[in-house]
């Protein structure tokens, strides 16, 4: 590639990144899922306040379960989060499938 | 060319500085006397003090919480390794029907959100009489650490040349012996990284620790930190000192394990 006259940027764009594709996708997958499941930062810093402006699904589920004691409702929110996470994971795993053989 | 690399260097330094600033600020706050904290902030405290560290060590639940965290995280790591290493070996090497499906389920369960299981787990642990114990946290953390651990270790084990195991079998070794004397030494770097990830996850775990604990008998560091603010005032200096203390053990462990994390043992094991 270097011999063909490619600079560092071209090498990165056309050789390194395509070869790293599946690793990058897995890293993206884990980071996205972690972000979707994040709980402690919001819960400790703001508790979802003021007036629900920082309330994520996870904080909402926790508050429903353990603070307002709507056990069935909280469990339902938990299941929605689960479904959401699975959908995202499935979409990423579909995208990981390498597209043809790279030269 | 040369000039462009200088620009990159500066960019990297700026990024590193931005990343380090909160830690620096927390460190600075932990050494600043209370009355100075309320004045206009300055980079270095005029009269550095250890008062916050003394307050944390003597009057807070932090020493107890640090002990709880060390215990829970260590036991979680050990239990996960004892259960996970044979499982990973089985997934990597044994002819199990539907192995691909098993591994797919393992990978999928690393995506499992804790919040979806926290209430049934709470009820279960309460019925078992395990509320507010180390056991509850170790069991819950292990169940969440295992999938990633098995997946990582199975990957490491698959990279070991199978000829090494075959040689051991020819010499009359059983599965257990091969696992202990051949596989374990060779995947030691993999075990070290997997153990480190498990330990850090257990150390930082908040949701389970917050839900399953009720007193300082089992409260871990993240919970103790979250409960730090008092009723009438927020002791910023004490919180800063406590959080610096809380981040020391993981740093020490990473430094201690560094040699293992970078070493590859398989290199040169086989002569073709």
Write up this protein.
- The complex is a heterodimer of chains A (103) and B (272).
- Chain A has helices at 8-37, 40-45, 57-67, 71-96.
- By secondary structure, chain A is mainly alpha-helical.
- Chain B is built from 13 helices and no strands.
- In chain B, 72% of the residues lie in helices and 0% in strands.
- The A-B interface holds A 29-30, 33, 36-37, 39-40, 43-44, 58, 61-62, 65-66, 71, 74-75, 78-79, 81-82, 85-86, 89 and B 108, 110-119, 206-207, 210-211, 222, 225-226.
The number of E-state strands of chain A comes to: 0
Total of DSSP H or I helical runs spanning 4+ residues of chain A: 4
Task: Estimate the mean pLDDT confidence of chain A.
Answer: 81
- SSE-based structural type of chain A: mainly alpha
How many helices of chain B in DSSP terms?
A: 13
The N- and C-terminal alpha carbons of chain B lie at a distance of: 44 Å
Number of strands of chain B: 0
Taking all Cα atoms into account, the compactness measure Rg of chain A is: 21 Å
Please give the largest β-sheet of chain A.
Answer: none
Question: What spatial form of chain A do the alpha-carbon principal axes imply?
Answer: elongated
How many angstroms separate the termini of chain A? 12 Å
- Sketch the topology of chain B as an H/E string, one letter per element: HHHHHHHHHHHHH
Please report which band the strand proportion of chain A falls in: under 5%, 5-15%, 15-25%, 25-35%, 35-45% or over 45%: under 5%
Query: What is the CA-based Rg of chain B, rounded?
Result: 23 Å
- The average pLDDT score of chain B comes to 84
> What oligomeric state is this?
heterodimer
- The low-confidence runs of chain A, each spanning 5 or more residues with pLDDT under 50, are none
Helical/strand content category of chain B? mainly alpha
Sheet having the most strands of chain B: none
């Amino acid at each position: 590639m270097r011999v063909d006259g490619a600079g560092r940027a071209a090498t990165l764009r056309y050789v390194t990144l395509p070869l790293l594709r599946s690793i990058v996708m897995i890293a993206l997958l884990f980071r996205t899922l972690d972000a979707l499941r994040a709980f402690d930062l919001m819960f400790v810093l703001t508790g979802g306040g003021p007036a629900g402006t920082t309330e994520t699904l996870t904080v909402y589920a926790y508050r429903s379960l353990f603070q307002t004691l709507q056990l069935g409702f909280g469990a339902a929110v938990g299941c929605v989060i689960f479904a959401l996470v699975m959908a995202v994971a499935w979409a990423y795993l579909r995208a990981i499938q390498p597209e043809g053989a790279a030269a | 060319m040369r000039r462009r690399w200088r620009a990159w260097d500066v960019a990297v330094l700026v990024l590193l500085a931005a990343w380090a600033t909160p830690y620096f600020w927390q460190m600075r706050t932990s050494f600043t006397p209370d009355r100075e904290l309320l004045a206009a902030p300055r980079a270095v405290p005029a009269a550095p003090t250890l008062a916050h560290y003394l307050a944390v060590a003597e009057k807070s639940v932090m020493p107890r919480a640090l002990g709880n965290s060390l215990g829970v995280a260590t036991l979680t790591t050990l239990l996960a390794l004892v259960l996970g290493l044979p499982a990973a070996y089985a997934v990597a090497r044994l002819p199990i029907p539907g192995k691909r499906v098993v591994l797919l389920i393992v990978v999928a369960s690393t995506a499992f959100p804790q919040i979806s299981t926290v209430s049934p787990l709470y009820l279960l642990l309460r019925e078992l009489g395990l509320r507010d114990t180390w056991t509850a946290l170790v069991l819950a953390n292990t169940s969440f650490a295992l999938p990633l651990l098995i997946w990582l270790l199975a990957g490491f084990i698959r990279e070991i040349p199978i000829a090494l195991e075959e040689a051991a079998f020819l010499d009359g070794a059983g599965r257990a012996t091969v696992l202990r004397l051949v596989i374990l030494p060779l995947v030691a770097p993999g075990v070290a990284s997997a153990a480190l990830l498990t330990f850090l996850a257990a150390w930082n775990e908040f949701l389970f620790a917050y839900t399953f604990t009720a007193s300082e008998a089992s409260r871990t560091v993240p919970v103790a930190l979250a409960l730090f603010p008092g009723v009438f005032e927020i002791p910023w200096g004490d919180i800063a000192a406590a959080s610096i203390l809380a981040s020391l053990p993981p740093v020490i462990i990473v430094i201690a394990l560094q040699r293992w994390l970078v070493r590859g043992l398989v290199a040169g094991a086989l002569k073709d």
